[in-house]
């Protein structure tokens, strides 16, 4: 199924009696049973005002097209969308709607947030086949929810996105990355915390045990040069920081794990808990991003990371490996099921709460 406009999409949803799986460019696959509903026919940039830092595009528009339009005006999507095709062994091309539905974010999230934080408005068709618009150029709220925020990260389980409006930002004049080599995970988390807590506006903080601890600065050239020197002085107790080539595309895309056998897990947690969790899970390899608030772990196939990790404040998701169908805790499952009933009472998009993709670590 591949609708070409919102009217056709709404008619398809109203007419169906079987579950549907919403899919954008196919880079992550489609969740659950049922026929695949592709959004690629809903495409095109509909409004771009560089002076207002605003872009509106159909949800099926390719991410590459959006990035090219922005680059021509010296602008970008600030939340740094990961490209996980190599990691997951998939092809296809990311779409803007898929980026929003995933609430995508790369290393810069530690400073600016995720897709949700730049989302101005959405249009989507719910499980009844009704077209709903919220935020942006038109306002139509329903049921009292902040639909703009709600649809970010919904992964097609509440409705099919048809249009999104986003705030964009200028590209920086200069980018500098500092490397602290030789730190263990505990030292790395402490160094990243010091950098992120400083006034020097760090926009990336990651640790790769085999390479070192990376810190990024962006902005006007003079400001970046000043902050680089001051940050290096601040970090002197952790070692001598050196300026290195840009590693952030590799970190963003989890490239060190691509092509390596094993399950890949993503954990969100407090940075202060990172060292203890890493020690307990016994991973074959790890990467830390967001100052330690995000851990990527490469595990042997079938390993039960959640059991090994024990109690921690956060959640874990297996992105590559056996299907991850761990249910949400009862309270969260109740909230999730309630939202689904409001927007998809027939269970067209999410026929089972076992499709929940995160589980609490404690």
Automatic annotation (TrEMBL):
Gene3D superfamilies: 3.30.465.10. Keywords: FAD, Flavoprotein. It comes from the Bacteria. The keyword Flavoprotein applies. Residues 1-171 form the FAD-binding PCMH-type domain. InterPro entries: FAD-bd_PCMH, FAD-bd_PCMH-like_sf, FAD-bd_PCMH_sub2, FAD-linked_Oxase-like_C, Oxid_FAD_bind_N. This is FAD-binding protein.
């Amino acid at each position: 199924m591949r609708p070409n406009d919102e009217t056709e999409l709404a008619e398809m949803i109203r007419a169906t009696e079987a579950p549907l799986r919403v899919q954008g460019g196919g880079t992550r696959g489609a969740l659950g049973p049922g026929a695949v509903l592709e959004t690629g026919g809903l495409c095109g940039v509909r409004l771009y005002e560089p002076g207002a830092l605003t872009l509106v595009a159909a949800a099926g528009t390719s991410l590459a097209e959006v990035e090219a339009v922005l680059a021509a005006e010296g602008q970008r999507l600030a939340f740094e969308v990961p490209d996980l095709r190599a990691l997951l062994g998939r092809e296809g091309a990311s779409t803007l709607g898929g980026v929003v539905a995933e609430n995508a974010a790369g290393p810069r999230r530690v400073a600016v947030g995720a897709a949700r934080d730049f989302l101005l408005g959405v249009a989507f068709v719910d499980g009844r086949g009704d077209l709903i618009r919220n935020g942006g150029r038109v306002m139509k709220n329903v049921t009292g929810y902040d639909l703009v925020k709600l649809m970010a990260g919904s992964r097609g389980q509440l409705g099919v996105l048809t249009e999104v409006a986003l705030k964009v930002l200028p590209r920086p004049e200069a980018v500098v990355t500092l490397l602290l080599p030789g730190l263990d995970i505990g030292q790395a988390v402490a160094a990243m915390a010091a950098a992120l807590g400083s006034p020097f506006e760090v926009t990336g903080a990651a640790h790769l045990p085999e390479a070192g601890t990376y810190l990024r600065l962006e902005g006007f050239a003079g400001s970046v040069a000043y902050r680089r020197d001051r940050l290096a002085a601040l970090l002197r107790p952790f070692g001598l920081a050196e300026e290195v080539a840009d590693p952030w595309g590799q970190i963003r895309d989890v490239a060190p794990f691509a092509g390596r056998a094993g399950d890949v897990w993503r954990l969100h947690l407090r940075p202060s808990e990172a060292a203890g969790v890493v020690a307990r899970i016994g991973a074959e390899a790890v990467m830390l991003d967001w100052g330690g608030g995000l851990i990527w772990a490469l595990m042997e196939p079938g390993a039960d990371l959640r059991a090994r990790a024990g109690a921690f404040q956060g959640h874990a998701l297996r992105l590559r490996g056996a299907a991850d169908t761990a249910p949400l805790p009862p309270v969260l499952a109740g909230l999730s099921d309630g939202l689904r009933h409001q927007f998809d009472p027939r269970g067209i998009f999410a026929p089972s709460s076992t499709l929940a993709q995160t589980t609490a670590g404690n």
